[in-house]
From TrEMBL:
Cofactor: a divalent metal cation
Species whose genome carries this gene: Aquatica leii
Keyword Metal-binding recorded: yes
Protein name: DDE Tnp4 domain-containing protein
A Pfam family annotated for this UniProt entry: DDE_Tnp_4
Predominant subcellular localization, coarse grouping: nucleus
Listed PANTHER family: NUCLEASE HARBI1-LIKE PROTEIN (PTHR22930:SF269), PTHR22930
UniProt KW keywords: Hydrolase, Metal-binding, Nuclease, Nucleus
Compartmental location: Nucleus
Assigned protein family: Belongs to the HARBI1 family.
Gene Ontology CC annotations of this record: nucleus
Keyword NAD part of the UniProt annotation: no
Length: 367
């Protein structure tokens, strides 16, 4: 975060922080700086408290209060409810940048490692054998978070995470202001607008997921490739979040409620800084330069710098996986829509240049 961005953020949250500061030795600016250091550097509470010459209890209270204020102030600015025209704009960006028309967002969920909550039993104990809460998120074509749902128990099945989230309920009950079904570009194939996810999520009329299995027919393999181009955006959004907010580099030693506030604050800060950088030249972007994210070349995927920064050893932000194999059977309508989209992406109207060679090259490497 640049000094100018810090000042802008302080101007937004400072008045509320001032109300909490009357009896404390720290000014609103110090309270905000302390919290940002904790979130971005991942320092221990002891280190933070020592640096500011305050007690650990005071430091913990400051972090809890400031993250709550950041969420309350910023979420109304950087996570505003989306309207019909917002979705149309996002769809154009996915179509232009990632080549999959009618895509409204990419969805995924991650386990955030926490210490064992008191009296929780196995409620937060996940399939990776540690305690966690789930961050479910949807992002746009430029790695900005559109929806977040935080706090599902780590032991909860992944289909249940989506179904019980505010986003999942709104999607299922047709409460989102999605564009109405239209023909796909340069074709007469009518298709609803949809979100894209991986196999952890149920196939639906407004949620596309890949075909399962190895050695798929060419058409299905091309569909999976095209879907992965759009779905990779949410993987990179999480990667940016983890690499820039190092609090996620370890198990967070706080209560589930405090962790909930930490996640909400970092999501808002991510969007806040991304939006501030959006109009800058590429060489001026510090939070999310192009090199940070994966990119596709004729030879395959070039991994973004976030993967090297994060590494593979940390146990946080692990994938959710489908555990309730007996459920989530897709309906006939969803299966037919996926087949229609498959036929479109292999047709002259919907094909991308080089997609057959790209997919065949990958199939050859596997064999």
């Amino acid at each position: 975060m640049t000094p100018a961005q810090f000042d802008q953020l302080l101007e937004m949250v400072g008045p509320t922080l001032q109300k909490h500061s009357n009896r404390e030795p720290l000014s609103p600016s110090q309270r905000l700086a302390l919290t940002l250091r904790y979130l971005s550097q991942g320092d221990s509470i002891f280190s933070i408290a020592s640096g500011y010459k305050i007690g650990r209890s005071t430091a913990s209270t400051v972090i809890r209060e400031v993250t709550e204020v950041i969420w309350n102030v910023l979420n109304e600015v950087v996570l505003k409810p989306l309207k019909h025209d917002d979705f149309k704009k996002i769809e154009r960006q996915f179509s232009e940048k990632w080549g999959l028309p009618h895509t409204l967002g990419a969805i995924d969920g991650k386990h955030v490692a926490i210490q064992c909550p008191q009296n929780s039993g196995s409620t937060f104990f996940n399939y990776k054998k540690h305690f966690s809460i789930v961050l479910l998120a949807v992002c746009d074509a430029h790695y900005n978070f559109m929806y977040v749902d935080i706090g599902a128990f780590g032991a909860q099945s992944d289909g249940g995470v989506l179904a019980n989230s505010a986003f999942g309920k709104a999607l299922a009950n047709f409460e989102l202001e999605l564009p109405k079904e239209e023909a796909l570009p340069r074709s007469n194939i009518k298709m609803p607008y949809f979100f894209v996810g991986d196999d952890a999520f149920p196939l639906g009329t407004h949620l596309m997921k890949p075909y399962k299995g190895a050695n798929l027919p060419l058409g299905k393999a091309i569909f999976n490739y095209r879907l992965s181009r759009a779905r990779r955006v949410i993987e990179n959004a999480f990667g940016i979040l983890v690499s820039r907010w190092r609090i996620f580099s370890r198990t967070i030693p706080s209560s589930a409620t405090t962790v909930d506030g930490i996640i909400k604050a970092t999501v808002c800060l991510h969007n806040f800084i991304k939006q501030k950088e959006s109009n800058l030249p590429e060489n001026k972007k510090k939070y999310c330069p192009q090199s940070l994210c994966d990119k596709e070349t004729d030879d395959g995927i070039v991994e973004g710098e976030w993967r090297r920064e994060v590494g593979t050893s940390n146990i946080v932000l692990e994938d959710i996986t489908k555990m309730d194999r007996g459920g989530n059977n897709p309906g006939k309508a969803a299966l037919e829509l996926r087949e229609k989209l498959t036929q479109y992406v292999i047709s002259p109207a919907g094909a991308l240049p080089g997609q057959i060679n790209y997919v065949n090259r990958g199939r050859t490497k596997k064999n």
